[in-house]
């Protein structure tokens, strides 16, 4: 892979990472509820899910997922169910972070990591994204080092983006401002997640 190809890959991965969606909402919520460490843990584990989808794509398995309507539907419905669960938790939150384990107590780092991983791994649209993305860069007979570089690039850019988001929020006055409005933010996050789940279900109907 040439430097220009790699830079093009980086640009596409960055564009995908910064696109707002449920992943950003989950990172925001864990940062608000537990601080920068929780937000960064969510981001790092989200990147692991991205790496898994990238690996699946490079291995050619994403084609099987997209061609198998039943498998794609199962993953999609599981993702919608997870969004509903997160959305309900957010709506029931008393403030201070929509994904708190219990009132007044932030979720554990493990919980933050699980939420970050699950929100990415239960998103089959990543298979579509990577299939469209990697098809431009994967060539017949491509070395394992080249494949590893592509997978690592996607994961590192995704993880760095969400870690930067968590760091920015936790190291500036933004987090304090958000904390003062945490209950309204929790409700907003809950509504967004439920609407996203509803949209997924409508597309599957």
Give a brief outline of the structure:
The protein has 205 residues and is mostly helical. It is 80% helix and 0% strand.
Using DSSP, what is the number of strands? 0
Helical/strand content category:
mainly alpha
Q: Kindly provide the radius of gyration, computed on alpha-carbon positions and rounded to a whole number of angstroms.
A: 17 Å
> What share of the residues lie within helices?
over 70%
Count of domains: 1
Strand percentage: under 5%
Q: Segments where pLDDT lies below 50 for 5+ residues? A: 98-104
The number of helical elements comes to: 10
What overall form do the CA principal axes indicate?
globular
* N-to-C series of helices and strands: HHHHHHHHHH
> Quick one: biggest sheet?
none
Measure the end-to-end span.
41 Å
| Overall average residue pLDDT | 79
Transmembrane segments: 41-63, 126-152, 159-178
GO molecular function, one term: amino acid transmembrane transporter activity
GO cellular component, one term: plasma membrane
Keywords: Cell membrane, Membrane, Signal, Transmembrane, Transmembrane helix
